[in-house]
Amino acid sequence: MSTMSPSGWVTVFCGIALLGVVSCGAQTPGEEEVRDIGSRLELFVDGYLIESMNGVTRELHSPRRQDVAIRFDSSWEGGISNKVTVFRDGPVYRMYYQGRRYLKDGSFGTRVTCYAESQDGVHWVKPNLGLYRDEYTGTTRNNIVLWPTRQWRHASDNFAVFKDTNPNCPPEARYKAVGRTIKGELAPEESASGFGAALAGNLAFQSPDGIHWSLMQKDPVVVGDGFDSHNIAFWDAYAGCYREYHREFRSGYRDMMTSTSDDFLHWTKPQWLDYGGAPQEHLYQGQVLPYFRAPHILLAFPDRYVDERKIQ
Length: 312
Prior knowledge:
Layout: E1 2-4, E2 10-15, E3 18-20, E4 82-89, E5 92-99, E6 112-118, E7 124-125, E8 144-146, E9 160-163, E10 175-182, E11 200-207, E12 214-215, E13 222-224, E14 232-236, E15 241-250, E16 253-261, E17 271-272, E18 282-284, E19 288-291, E20 294-300, E21 303-305
Parallel strand pairs: 2-20
Antiparallel strand pairs: 1-2, 2-3, 4-5, 5-6, 6-7, 6-8, 9-10, 10-11, 11-12, 11-13, 14-15, 15-16, 16-17, 18-21, 19-20
């Protein structure tokens, strides 16, 4: 599945046994043209740069399951801890994730955002940050970096962090994040999707160190009536703009929208992703990121939601 960005980037969507790409401005099949790639590296996810293949095949490998790297087993975490973000930051890897426990009475605990770090991406440490008091143990000796407040009651539902490499970024905003907000429930007849979804949006956060967070402004920067996915944003160095991806409903399906910004506060009107005629299906968690060896290519790894598939 794939989409075209307005800035001429290639975005590749990887689902379960599904991979494709469409290039912005691509020539129609049969046109003979030398495509000058200069000295940049390319990832051969499709046939756009391949004229012919004789005696060779292109094989897309699947991830391999390895040992457990981190366990969400603290009292403020649990079996429904998710929405994980991992990125390399100089000599360390940073991890941000939702901590939420499943209680014995069948209810759920408070959603919080937790932090862990690693030197190698395999062995992880949960530092004692002392920022918030855990409601179960009563101690501040924990790795919680964001707790629900009146200003951001739902931001920890899907807090997504990135390090801003924009050369014009001020030090106090070197780390940025988006987290959702909900403005009350709408009746189905009032909702554009017809699902009675809440009027929602992304709040913009900033931090000088990736640990201490504050709002960039009170109001959400992108609004709609979905946003319960792991909505993400990042600085697109190749295109020179910020990008965000969030979930909405389209024709009864969970689907992804995107928009761009020059300052992280003012965003273009969101546009639906285009999958090149592929059958419509439910998608969650866009998880888009530039491929680090060829940053003009964006990769995405969404979840496919199958409603009739149940846990046995």
